[in-house]
Amino acid sequence: MPLPQKSERKIYQILVRTHKTTLFFTVPPSTTIKYLKEQVLSALNSGLSEEEGIPIVKNVEDFDLCRCRVIKGKDQKTYDVLEQTESTIKEIKLTNWEVLYIQFKDEEGQSLEIMATDPPIDDDEESKPLHSSPTIDKGKGKRRAIEDDDEYSL
């Protein structure tokens, strides 16, 4: 029996990162990179630039959207600028939940270093239980009595 074919994705979640901020966009696959840059510009100009040292941008030429590429065998990342602004998300083969990065430009139009902090994968804090139990678990087997239980024993 043949497997059913996957239907084409109707909506994409695209994440755009800069500094310690992540912007979330829900867009159809026919969205162009130009339109996505306009949406990023709108978000940056909505007061976001005032926070965390994000540079102020006036138009879409003040920044580029980049895709991160990890070089295998090395602990190194490179960023490829998405230059085909008329291309759609589907045409350049962005995936659902793809993370793009903002590369700002200086006054002369030269690209600056990408300043983005990826969130940690593991929490540094130990996970705390949602509720505490009155028993002390020392492994498999019968429940061990705790000191308070001795006063109730017969």
UniProtKB/TrEMBL annotation:
InterPro entries to which the protein is assigned, alphabetical: Ubiquitin-like_domsf
Region of interest called Disordered, as start-end residue ranges on this chain: 111-154
Official protein name in the record: Ubiquitin-like domain-containing protein
Species whose genome carries this gene: Lentinula guzmanii
Organism taxonomic ancestry: Eukaryota, Fungi, Dikarya, Basidiomycota, Agaricomycotina
